[in-house]
Design a protein that fits this description.
mainly alpha, 2 domains, 7 helices
Length: about 170
Amino acid sequence: MSPEARRAATVAGAATLTLAGAVVLRSHDLELLLHLYAVAMGVAAFYWLVAATAGRHRTLTPPGLRLPRRRPRPERVRELERLEHATEFALSTAFDVHYRLRPHLRQVAQDRLLARGIDLDSDLAAAAALGPEAWELVRPRRQGPEDRAAPGTNLAVLRRAVRALEEL
């Protein structure tokens, strides 16, 4: 028996025993007790309905029918979250451009270029295919920033570089 159904039975039983005791003792305010009994039965019915709608009360669900279950929210893709964070950080410091965002962009560039038969490490062919802004971010011998706290990349430059990668 579910907790809600157990609570409903407890409330109904307690209300019934209280009303029975009042009738036996011939309480002079029987009308008030009947109103309170009706409220208690309403509470018991509420608990029972909660149990039924939550799919826990088996008597309301026909044997062949399954109640629809809530689908869990899909988890965010971890790699997408990493890329989003790397992009946000890359807009702030040069360190983050080089060490957080650049590895992601290099992987995309390498995969896209290999599909066209171009090796990312072959400077001339890869540079021509990528364009100057994307090439500047992914070129093989790019040095890390001298000043790690220097401003990161510009959003417009980053968008153009990503667009160049998408067009490959």
